[in-house]
Amino acid sequence: MREAPGRDMTATEEASSKLYYEYPLNERIRAFLRLEFLFKNTLHCLGGHTAWDSRATLQGILEILCILGRNDLKAELIKELERRASHLARLKERPGVDRERLVNLLQELDALMEHLYGSSAQFAQDLRENDFLASIRQRSAIPGGTCEFDLPGYHFWLQQDPETRYRHLSGWFNAFEPLYRPITLILFLIRQSARPIAMCAERGFLQQNLDPSLPYQMMRVALPDGAGCFPEISAGRHRYTIRFLEQASPEARAVPADRDVHFELACCTC
Q1: Where do the CATH 1.10.3900.10 domains begin and end in the chain?
Q2: Overall average pLDDT of the 246-253 stretch
Q3: Backbone CA torsion sign across 190, 192, 194, 197
Q4: pLDDT tens per residue across span 141-162
Q5: 27-191: which CATH topology?
Q6: Fewer CB within a 10 Å sphere, N or C end of the chain?
Q7: Does 123 have pLDDT greater than 80?
Q8: What pTM, to 2 d.p., does this model score?
Q9: What is the widest separation between alpha-carbon atoms in the chain?
């Protein structure tokens, strides 16, 4: 599975020397963000060659399967792609719009929707029916439950050469391709939907109202690297609250920042 070109914002954001904190404003985006995190983490571990890398990769695959079992992702993705396509189509006649880029995006959205319509209702059904994976998934709920005396077959597989393990793992991970591309594109478009605004949280606290008529999807807080604090975000349909906390070390308890904190905020819609 390859990264969709131009979609992963991580490298750009890291280069900007800012830390980004995102908060989903509905269950659909919450599921998409968790899957995006698992996709990235699993892809990273897939590049390793040790048995521990393979363990981490397989754990990521099983966690993705767990999320898929709780959501009707196909219907949610199609609905979200249709909303994005409808919104972008209305921009065609606006002055200053890059029409070539817009047309390419619309074509990509159409291709992803067509692919989803033609896919089965249950993503990665073959993985759910795989006895080897099912045995590991069952034991994973127990602390230390996947050690060698619990799952000798798993231990045997982990001793195979790295190329064999990679072939199996990449084959299993590629079953998520119909999800990976649309989720990556949807989140990219959401993140690009709002320009960040300079804000100040007086004595580390900010609370403001939201327009309930707007379809907010996600909040993004950007702090300069070295700000020395992190945000705790809560939000509903009508308002949001951001409280900044400081934590000197993992052994110390986080405490409210008793100072003005300057940051950037983007309230993303569609």
Answers
A1: 27-191
A2: 93
A3: positive
A4: 899 999 999 999 999 999 999 9
A5: YacF-like (1.10.3900)
A6: N
A7: no
A8: 0.86
A9: 66
